Amino acid sequence: MNAPFERSSGRRWARLAFAGAAWLSLAIAWIVYQRRSGLGPVDTAQELVDTARGNWWAIIGYLVISLLRPLVLFPASVVTVAAGLLFGPVVGVAVAAVSANVSALIAHTVGRSFSRPERADEVTSRLGGWAARLRGNGFEAVLLMRLLFLPYDPVSYACGLLRVRRGEFLAANAIGTLPGTVAFVLIGASITRLDEGFGGIDPVTLSVSVLLVVASITASRVIKRRQRIVALAPQE
């Protein structure tokens, strides 16, 4: 009588075991590579830029790296700056925006695959108001976190673990990450090398980037204030 349930449960655990093994293998390979090369995230990104620059496969390679990036928690900001350095401001924004949203979807999917509805309910009850708002109004909550530039991958994984609806997550992610994506790509487009820092950055580009960051944080405060007003409003 319980055979179908047992088979379903067995397949679920097999998928989780495979995903966990693949994730762990990739993380170990990344750690070994970094130790042998002695390169940090910025130097590694510069090495990849030097390899890809001028090659026809650069966009494909960039997208592949971006898809693998959340699995090893490589900084999203460094990859976004590299898009500007590689492709310039226009193509860079387009490529970085696509990769940012797809990588967020991957992290969300991984987090969701390790969660079950009843477990998400239990975690929500323990975490309290923040998790409840995230699950009750996922769009505004995710939008707020993206506009505040909270750590990119932890937010995506948390949304998956708490089973925030995929459509709300993707829509809020696409809108909320756009100011930061444009800002970081513009920074990348205005510098010569990542490993030389921002010494040669164009002041006009830097000003635009700063304005975008300020606009993003300001928008987050407006959304946060709106949430407070809604929360305090009398319920009919």
Overview of the structural elements:
By secondary structure, the protein is mostly helical. The chain folds into 2 domains: 1-38; 40-232, no CATH class. The chain has helices spanning 3-37, 41-52, 58-72, 76-113, 117-127, 129-136, 138-147, 152-161, 166-176, 178-189, 203-232. The chain is flat, with a radius of gyration of 20 Å. It starts with a helix and ends with a helix. The model is unreliable at 229-236 (pLDDT under 50). It is found in: Cell membrane. Keywords: Cell membrane, Membrane, Transmembrane, Transmembrane helix. Pfam families: VTT_dom (PF09335).
Total number of strands: 0
User: What about the largest sheet?
Assistant: none
Q: Please state the oligomeric state of the protein chains shown.
A: single chain
Number of domains: 2
Instruction: Count helical runs.
Output: 11
The residue fraction in helices comes out at over 70%
* H/E series: HHHHHHHHHHH
> What is the CA-based Rg, rounded?
20 Å
**What structural class do helix, strand and pairing data support?**
mainly alpha
Based on CA inertia axes, which overall geometry fits? flat
Distance between the termini: 47 Å
**Mean pLDDT level:** 76
Instruction: Estimate what percentage of residues fall within beta strands.
Output: under 5%
Uncertain residue segments: 229-236
